[in-house]
Amino acid sequence: MTPDDYRRRYFELKAQAKTIQRSSARHPENPTVITDTLAQEIIPPGWYWTRRLSRGQVLRLTNTQATHGISLLLWNAHDTSERYNAGDTVKVQWTARINRGRLLLSDMGRVLASVIGDTCGFHDAVAGGSTRALDDAKYGPDPVRRNSAENFLLAAGKHGLDTRDVGSCITFFAPVVTDEEGFFQWHAEALVPGQHVDLRLEMDVIVAVSNCPHPLSPQTHWSSEPVEVQIWQAPKTNADDFCRTATEETVRAFENTDAYLREMA
Amino acid sequence: MMSRNFASAVYDHMVPATAPWSGLVKKGQIIRIVDVEGQQAIDTLFYNAADTSERYSAQATLAAQGSAYIGIGTRIISSRGALMATMLTDTSGAHDTSAGACSCEANTVRFGHHTRFMHACRENFLVALAAHGMGKRDIVSNINFFMNVPIRPDGELAIVDGLSRPGDHVELRAEMDLLCVISNCPQVNNPCNGFNPTPIRVAIWND
Fold this sequence. Notes:
heterodimer; A: alpha+beta; 6 helices; 12 strands; globular; B: alpha+beta; 6-stranded antiparallel sheet; 4-stranded antiparallel sheet; 10 strands
């Protein structure tokens, strides 16, 4: 192919992605009635939560009191060198707005999780989670205040992983919008108590969740509220499942994932 | 600060199109990365040379500056919150750190399974990192110098034509001893290299 051929193909794909984004509002409502709860826990303010989850389970994060962000990392449970990849997740899907119908992709071109439910719609896949340095600069020094970077080290550590296994995260319920000048703006109206996201795991994973306020939260004093995690069994996924079929890219990501799962079986 | 002459550089190297590069930049030294022919994405990672488990954090860097792109004055922040480097010079504008590096695997998802056997940045990173005893776990969100990826208020994020002209360059001052790892991006499936990867030049000065 010539450079012109590559250019033509790229801008066709880009135009197609735009059409799909406009039609994404047509996605059917997600199943909100959970019939099969496997576990339910509360993550206290500032704390982390980690465990292995199996393919087909759904992790629901409920932001009962509209806390400012819940950060999350995922690893392939069978090969932790494969992990959530922020760049691929936003680039492949042509959007930094990861919400209902979108996928959390690994660095290996495969799907770790599908966002099958989302009653908030504003999450941050760009600016990350809190760190000690960011919190100290914002709230003043505090040697015992918890933060997401250290929570992720702790969560990783409980699985025998270490600092090299911790990469960029996604923070749900952090309504960060990039304005025309490139500055981050906090879209406060997007947060309402009781909102949830449902992440259906598409392979066996280790998940780490950190309940610390996002670094771009407008709050001037550190505060965090408890959040609820619930694990439930997803209904059988049909071939026409909207997360599997939303876009050409989505279909290919699942082709890669399905081939890998067949290899592993 | 006067413009630095290549004649006084302590290191000066042309990186061929599509190739990897790595090198040490000592605290206080200045590294210049030149887009020799223009519109060439340069995927770049930084590590603390004394302990490479401390590495560049794209997210901490963006959160600290409150904006989405790398430019003059950007403080390059590490995974432990330390200042790694400061961006002093930028003759181009539009440097991304959100869209990551291309890979054979992500290419199959983005552009089709027929692109699996095309060279990619993460291949370059793995080769360059292996020379320092490092591997895939050390590959994190990188900086893409000269790669233009606007993020729109509605979330749209796409690689569009680069703004850099021949000879455009960036300069960064190392604030700790750094291992710098570069992939001179081989991607031809999107506009990051003008669909035609070209050589780059890396030079280092003591001040």
